[in-house]
């Protein structure tokens, strides 16, 4: 994952030291883009071992339209615990906006089902977008959406997807976000009988927290491994039918895990 290591290098070389909401402090650049051609492999960081199960389960949880951490707990994933209230609720975060956006006049919009229907009906449409950024709901969300908007495009039988991530924790969050959207791209392509094309990651405030700088530098000293492949073993009737067991990661070789505290 040269693209990821180049990003770390750019922040270390060119970034500005900036205070932030969590009080941790960051080194940050504004605006960055990475491109991943999925035919070259599944974009998983190899310079530290990633907890892939957490990533895949979290995406299935978004697709369920779920916004309570209980289902994550049932699948032994705890990455959202710090933000949940005492009932496990996160407010109307990603799952709600993706699957059940409520309009001012009371309509309920399933943006994911609509996206897939649009791709199938009108692959040349330039309106293939899903937004989690619902300004009216922001006050009720425990954390404002970071990966807030994505767009797809069908070109020569391939599905491409671009994400806009407004705020990017490069050591902890970004490796998760890249893998999550690469999987989402593959699932949508699978449902639409298209080949996976490129995943384009676009970041807004792209930062390394000050307590992640050593962990980031350590990764620059490690030689990346070739990318693994992801095999989807079954095609359910809809995007709602996928289960964790349908995904088989082949050939994921990585350097040892590196710990880092999450900024809350
Ligand atoms: N500061 C911050 N960074 C984030 O990346 C982030 C947030 N906050 N808040 C909401 C979600 C939660 N996400 C998280 C939260 C924790 C980890 C984390 O601790 N990852 C560990 C492994 C933990 C595990 O899989 O059980 C890691 O080493 O990658 C990753 C993403 C991504 N998001
Ligand atoms: O999927 C995610 C979710 C969150 N993050 C990071 C980005 C920031 O470091 C924090 C959010 O803080 P804000 O003050 O709301 O920007 O979480 C991420 O990288 N990926």
TrEMBL record:
Transmembrane segments: none
Thymidylate synthase/dCMP hydroxymethylase domain boundaries: 2-264
Gene Ontology molecular functions: thymidylate synthase activity
Protein residues bound to dUMP: 21, 126-127, 166-169, 177, 207-209
Name of the gene this protein is made from: thyA
Keyword Nucleotide-binding: no
Any single biological process term in GO: dTMP biosynthetic process
Role played: Catalyzes the reductive methylation of 2'-deoxyuridine-5'-monophosphate (dUMP) to 2'-deoxythymidine-5'-monophosphate (dTMP) while utilizing 5,10-methylenetetrahydrofolate (mTHF) as the methyl donor and reductant in the reaction, yielding dihydrofolate (DHF) as a by-product. This enzymatic reaction provides an intracellular de novo source of dTMP, an essential precursor for DNA biosynthesis.
Residues engaged in binding (6R)-5,10-methylene-5,6,7,8-tetrahydrofolate: 51, 169, 263
InterPro entries: Thymidate_synth/dCMP_Mease, Thymidate_synth/dCMP_Mease_dom, Thymidate_synth/dCMP_Mease_sf, Thymidylate_synthase
Complex and partners: Homodimer.
Chief location category: cytoplasm
Gene3D superfamilies the UniProt entry points to: Thymidylate synthase/dCMP hydroxymethylase domain (3.30.572.10)
Protein name: Thymidylate synthase
Enzyme class of the recorded protein, top EC level: transferase
Family listed: Belongs to the thymidylate synthase family. Bacterial-type ThyA subfamily.
Reaction(s) catalysed by this chain's protein: dUMP + (6R)-5,10-methylene-5,6,7,8-tetrahydrofolate = 7,8-dihydrofolate + dTMP
Keyword Disulfide bond: no
Record-listed E.C. numbers: 2.1.1.45
